Amino acid sequence: MKPILTSELKRFNYLTSEIDAAYHEAALMFHLSDSAMMVLYCLYSNDGCCMLSDICLMSGVSKQTINSALRKLEEEQILYLQATGGKKKMVHLTEKGLQLASQTVACIIEIENNIFNSWTPAETRQYLELTQRYLTTFREKVQEFERERIEPNEDSII
User: Fold this and answer.
1) How much of the chain is helix, strand and coil, in % rounded to 5?
2) Which burial class, exposed, middle or buried, applies to 67 when counting CB atoms under 10 A from its CB (0-12, 13-18, 19+)?
3) 17, 52, 78, 108: which has the fewest Cβ within 10 Å?
C-alpha cells in the first residue's frame, strides 16, 4: 500500500525544497556553486580555517563534492590545504578567500542572524528544538528501517 502524503508533509517538503532553492539562488547571485558556498561558509564561520573532515560534517555535503569544490577554490587561490599528519588536512582561507567570504557568506550569515533576531527567543528555541527532534527521529527511523531490511524478523514475508 502506498503511504499517504499528508498536507503537512507536502507543505514541509515544499518549504524544505524552497529553502534549498533560496540558498542556491544566493550562491548563484555570488557566482558560486552550492558546494563552494558551503566551504566558504564553514571556513568563514570558523575564523578562516578548519579541518577538511569538519567541513564535510558541518556542510552535510559528500566528501567527493567538497573535494571537487576545494580543488577549484584552491586553483583560484581562495584557500589552501595544509597536511596535519596522516590523511588529515586543515583548510585555510587565503587573504583573497577571506575577502571573498566577507563579500558573500558574511552577507548570508547576516541575513540568517537577522531572521533569528526578528523572532522571540521562545520562537527560536522552539524552531531549533523541533528541527533537532525531527532530524533525530528521522535518522533513528531510517536506521530502524535499514536494520529490519537487513535482519528481517520472523513475521516478515520474503
Assistant:
1) 70, 10, 25
2) middle
3) 17
pLDDT digits (tens, 9 = 90+) for 37-59: 999 999 999 999 999 999 999 99
DSSP letter at 151 equals S
Percent of the chain with pLDDT over 90: 83
In order, the DSSP letters of 53-73 are HHHHHHH---HHHHHHHHHHH
First to last CA, the chain: 16
CA distance 52 to 97: 16
Maximum Cα–Cα distance for the chain, whole Å? 62
pTM (predicted TM-score)? 0.85
The residue count for the chain? 158
Does position 71 have pLDDT exceeding 60, yes or no?
yes
